[in-house]
Each structure stands twice: as C-alpha cells, then as structure tokens.
Amino acid sequence: MPFDAVRLADAAAATGPDVVLAFAADAANAAVMRQALLVRAVETSLLDLFGKGKLHGTIHTCVGQELTGVTIGANMHRDDFITSNHRCHGHFIAATGNWRGLIDEIVGNVDGVCAGIGSSQHLYARNFMSNGQQGGLLPVAAGIALDRKHRGSDGIAISFMGEGTLGEGIFYETMNVDSLWSLPHLIVLENNFYSQSTPQAQSVAGSIAGRAAAFGLTVRESSTWNPAELATTAAAAMRDVRETGRPGFLVVRTYRLNPHSKGDDSRDAEELAWFGARDPLNVVLASNNAHRAHYEDLLREVEDHIQISLTKPRLSPTRYFTDKLPRTGSSGWTKVEAASHDTRYVQQ
Ligand SMILES: Cc1ncc(C[n+]2csc(CCOP(=O)(O)OP(=O)(O)O)c2C)c(N)n1
Fold it and tell me: Assuming Cys at both sites, which of 3, 6, 251, 270 could form a disulfide with 221, CB separation 3.0 to 4.6 Å?
C-alpha cells in the first residue's frame, strides 16, 4: 500500500465495524443514515447514467464520503448557508433535500434546480452554492458570514473543501479575514488523501490542522469511520461558530471509493478493496437488513425519477435569452444554437 493509504488505514482500523453498526442500529441516527444512503443511491445511479452516455460534461461523486455532508446538514439552522466544491452532490442533498431537482439539473432539463444550466458543479439554492473552482467560494462564504453577523442572525456560513485545495492562496486569505473580522464561518476540510491522482504525501507538508490554528481558528478533527464521533464533533464545531461568532475548522478524514470524476483512477486495486470493505455504508448494507431494504427502495425510487427526468424538455435558449436575460439585439450579444441533446462534450 502507498504511504498515504497506510496512514489512512491506521485511522480506519482504529474504529472497526462494531462502532459503525452500533451507530446505524440506534433509532436516533436513522435520519442521518437514511440520508447518507439516499446520497449513495443518487451518486451510484448518476455514475451508472454517465457510463451509459446519458450525461453531458462530467460528475464527481462522493461515494465513501457521504457521512460528512449529511452530518453537517443535520445540524443546519434556517439561516445557515453552505458553499461547496466540485464534489458537491451530497452537500447539496444535505442542505436542501432536493435530490430530484439535482438529478434534473445534472440530466440538464428545465426542472433542474438551475434549469439545467449549472449542471453538476454549479448549483444554487436558497441556502447553497457550489462552484468547481478550487477554493473559489471560500471568500464568498466569508461575505455570507459577514452578512449573518451584521444582521444579528444566528446563521453561519459553512464551506466544504478538499485537502487538495490547501495549495490555493485564497484559503489562507479567507482564514485571515475570517479571524480578523470574527466571522461565523466553518470550513470543513474533507481529507480523502488524494487530489485527483496526487497522493497527499506528495503535495501537503506539515500539519493541516496547524495551518488553520495559526490563523486563530478553532480546530476539530474526526473521520467518517466513526459516525458517532463525527456527529458529536461536527455538532460542537457548528455550535461553537454559532455561539462565539468566531471561525472554525473541521477536518474529516475519509476515503473516496469512486474515481476522481469518471475513469481517472490510478489508485492501487488492493487499497481500494481495503477501504471498500471498511466503508461505513458498505458495512451497514452488509449487516443491517432494514437499512439494506431501504437502500434498495431508494435505488428504485431514484431510477424511476431518472427515467422521468430523461423525458423532460431542456430549457429553450430563446426563452432563456428573451424572458430571463434579455441580452440579444442592441446589447451586442448573439444567440448560440443549442447543441444536439446527444452531443457529449467530453468526447469531442
Ligand atoms: C483553481 C483550480 N485548479 C485546478 C482545478 C482542477 N481540479 C479539479 S478537482 C481537483 C483536485 C481537488 O482535490 P481536493 O480538493 O482534495 O478534492 P477531492 O477531489 O479530493 O474531493 C483539481 C486539481 C480546479 N477545479 N480549480
């Protein structure tokens, strides 16, 4: 196993299946478990759809990492706002619950949450915004946190990022402002130990937690292999930011079971199998009949919606440009013909 995997293995092995199964069997955690399984069902079905050539562009699935987003979502207040990155589907479902609108968006039809224009990475809702530019929404979240502070709201801004984004200067600029201006901003770093195909050992020096601590953020750490501890730690991190009005940093160790986006996976097969066997949702699905039956229902429900979604119309460019954003004519903008529905840009 590569160096990174060995470090991860230490973290995963420290817990074991009993910890996960006890969490899943507790009725108090049913909502979190069911939403994590919903995210997995959606992600698995979308990847399958992509493989069949039915999706344009690309997708980044969060299979293996679901518990981070849903645990944060479970503690959200009405005025909280999430910003997310390219791997955003689970975060979106956790914030909004609107998985059908997400599927419509990614399929590209008019009922999508952004009318099919934003697709997988560019999502927007009342309490959610995502963007594929690494770190690009961190300062936006700081601005949202400033708004909550000025309005005297109890809302906080929450940003998801990956450890591969630690190389972006805007991360440090945002923490600096967060701390100087005392902003209620929680940055959640999902450490899956790879930045696309680069192992963390080749790209991140020193201490991740130490970087945030140096700017005066309150730092907490947890992992998806211990869902109970993750639930307690995430709730405490969000409560701290809410109550103190100060920024926080939560590092969640986890593992991405699927490729970075689609076929781009150079990780060791043995390593993938090792983590697949220890993945919390896989552990639950293998041993908890009620959750497995629910997951099978979810897969059917998601598949039914996908079939409906594929038949829905796309947003007409004419309608978009004339009704929503009148940019034609004297404005100098020209109308662009819509591409054929069967065109896949990734193949061009
Ligand atoms: C500013 C910028 N540079 C490069 C990319 C291309 N890119 C997309 S995802 C990615 C790796 C991101 O790794 P990480 O932040 O750890 O998130 P993960 O994919 O592991 O969830 C890269 C380099 C980008 N989207 N934005």
Answer: 251
